[in-house]
Amino acid sequence: MPSLAAIPWKTHKHQRVASQLDRLRADGRIGDGRVLPPERELSELCGVSRPTLRQVMQTLEAHGRVKSHARRGRVLVADPIDQEATPRSLSQMIALVTDDKQENLSGGGAPRGYSAQLTSAVTEAAVAAGYDLLVLRLSSAESTLPAVAREGVSGVVVATSLKARDTTEKSVVARAHELGVPVVAYGFRDDSVADSSGSKLGDIVASDHRAGGYLMTRWLIEQRGCRRPVPYLRVKSSIREAERFPTWWQQRIAGYRQAMDESGLEPFAPLEVDAVFRDEAMDLSAREADARYLAGYLAPLLHLPDRPDAIVCASDYCAAVASEAVDYALDPSSPRPVVTGYDNTWAHLRKLGLIHRPPAATADKDFDAIGQALVQRLHAQLNGEEARGPQLITPRLVTFADGEPHAEHQSLSNERVWSNDGPAVSPTLQSPA
Questions:
Q1: How far apart are CA 392 and CA 241, in angstroms?
Q2: With bands split at pLDDT 50, 70 and 90, how would you rate the model's confidence at 311?
Q3: pLDDT bracket for residue 417 (50, 70, 90)
Q4: How many CB atoms lie within 10 A of CB 361?
Q5: What is the pairing mode between strands 271-274 and 229-235?
């Protein structure tokens, strides 16, 4: 890895910037063959002004160590080579379609937002596989794709949040297919990316919500001795009536019912309670209002002889609401039900002041595995493989003790396949080696 600081520099100041760039390379923050961060971010990393950084970049370009591309920006190269012989090209680039705003606190949120987690995971996987990334915003992706395709971009990864996963995203997938560009997407159902003849338009990577619901319920039954867990969904008041009970929730309920049936237990009807405020207004006061509203539903149930002994929540935010609702519904001496969450966002919610204690357990969707799978499936298409339907990523169960996560995770031992009727095999709990 030839040193950038070894280039003849006109000033010591510029050489110090080059030395800082070398340190960023050694730390893996930037790398040969990779697109450099935006100018503002890179100047902050180097601790210099943007005009100074531009002067350094001009010198590096003159020595063949940086190449500028109109669409990609600046790319760091390992050796001074002729520009026409530069091996990196748009044919080695993946277009990544993301949300217009990489923030999503719906249902409890996620650290940096779901889309941002996916963007980070796909970026790392793509770089490891030797690709560069061209980021496209969802709102403009469909109109931008023809120009990108003409430039010879390798393929497209569509990785957006649940809020954006609608006809807009599906049209982007269909457009890429129409242009003959290989495409993979996160989180669709199987029939969402098929044309009228049933032909696959692209590969799908999805979180296995049925496995998540099954795994969480099995853990409650086998590890916590629960016999009467009840699912809880905070129904979002800001969406259309037809979307109030989304497919992923139905899949989790199917997993819950399967686990209950296998254990010889009677499933509860899910608590599907309207949110008091719109999601955009979600804050501490909204959480308290939701909790008081839910307490009105829970109080009669929690005073029955066969009361629920666990509340299986749709998200970590729902778990925070349910925990507070239990406080309102029960006196301090009454036994409390076990409360579980989903999405593993509790630490972020605690920083925001929206949660006081973590749930007893939560499910981590494993976005790193999802990002790797997206890039792997696209790479397979680029090597001649046909799209072959969804690949489901099983979430990991994270349990807690004394407010902190256990080192041990639970996992599903058997491979699962996509099915509208249920898993091909019944997964079993096991601890990782």
A1: 28
A2: very high
A3: very low
A4: 27
A5: parallel
pLDDT at 419 over 60: no
Which residue's entry shows tokens 């531009």?
Answer: 54
Query: From CA 227, how far away is CA 41, in angstroms rounded?
Result: 53
Which range of 55-59, 120-124, 235-239, 424-428 scores highest in mean pLDDT? It is 55-59
Predicted local confidence at residue 267, as pLDDT: 95
Write the pLDDT tens digit of every residue in 165-183: 555 667 788 888 888 888 8
